[in-house]
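User: I'm putting together a small comparison set for a docking exercise, and I want a reference complex before I start. The sequence is below, and the ligand is coenzyme A. Could you produce the 3D structure with the ligand included, as structure tokens?
Assistant: Of course. I'll restate your input first, then give the structure tokens for the complex.
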Amino acid sequence: MRDVAVIGIGCTPFGEKWGSSFRDLFVQAGTMALEDAGVAGEEIGAMYVGNMSAGRFIEQEHVGALIADYAGLASDHIASTRVEAACASGGLSFRQAFIAVASGIEDIVVAAGVEKMTDVGTGASVDALAGAADREWEGFVGATFPGLYAMIATDYMNRYPLTREQLAEVAVKNHYNGARNPIAQFSQEITIETVLSSSLVADPLRLFDCSPITDGAAAVVLAPLERAREYTDTPVRVLASAQASDTIALHDRRDISTLDATVAAGKRAFAMAGLSPGDIDLVEVHDCFTIAEICAIEDLGFCRKGEAGRLTAEGVTALGGDLPVNTSGGLKACGHPVGATGIKQVCEVVQQLRGEAGRRQVDGARIGMTHNVGGTGATVAVHILGV
Ligand code: COA
């Protein structure tokens, strides 16, 4: 297996992008990533595109070919593949690109993600997202994603010492970070009171416990490490790539407050990199809801079960804390264009490791992790990157 590096990144601003189509967003992110890497289109061997539900959101399928075409690569007959794993589509597209380069089959590969969610209303969006859970046993009886994560939050709060205020601290921290990220959907800082007084969505989760509905795209370019310096002075190595799965329905899980696929993927990633949680300088976790960030920190092994709420309130996961979590603003404040999120996480970690994160820079960051979840934890991708 060859060592692999990220040599270029690009990410559109996230939000409600009425002026940009699905293909515009992708081309914008892809162009930024190629320019950042100094790679010409004809050098690309393959492309993987994370996309959850273009069929439901914009009535477009066959996304791999569409993207290759509008990237101007149709006449090169480039190998372009759509990767779908619900909200983990981006993380898995990065993993597929990593495998293609590591195996030696391809040299220069683009991993991207794109989603255009706001062309349909909230109801249609929430219903499309419900397809990431078990349609027959969950979606059919009305369980939405906020509803499913509310069940996780309720179970967690019954078993562990997490207060409603500590949960709100996750959103307060992520909005603080998002306010320092120029691509973030939400750029306003909030207080605990903002969260606690916002509309109830699914008890105990309120509006500000939820990630929003978002348009956006992100892309990265990978190359074998031995060739990376032909393109950039700042290659970022992929130290580990891991993936795990679990039951699609929440009620079939051993324990709904522990995402076993996160535990498995985290362990595999640490083993592959030969690292442990104490080696990680920052982590982008999948905070689709505030409770998801609490579970992720624990399930990845950064602390014991039941401790993440207290550590969040104490500032351990804030910028300047011992383990900054979601410096991008996370899904909560940066936004969550589902197919693009896993790639945006990689872009954020790469920016941090290059020392290019501006007002949200983690001093001396050398090793970062990404954690991308599909559904309520039926698919998880974890990556570790380092310089
Ligand atoms: N956090 C903070 N503010 C939000 C928000 C969020 N998650 N979602 C919407 N808003 C704001 C909007 O900016 C808007 O503000 P404005 O009036 O100042 O312009 C206001 O709330 C109303 O927005 P609207 O789009 O009408 O909200 P909505 O009620 O249609 O949708 C949710 C709110 C929570 C239902 C929707 O964001 C949602 O379903 N989120 C979860 C997405 C999800 O499940 N993703 C997959 C996870 S695995």
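The two ends are 19 Å apart (CA to CA). The first strand starts at residue 4 and ends at 11.
User: Thanks, that's exactly what I needed.
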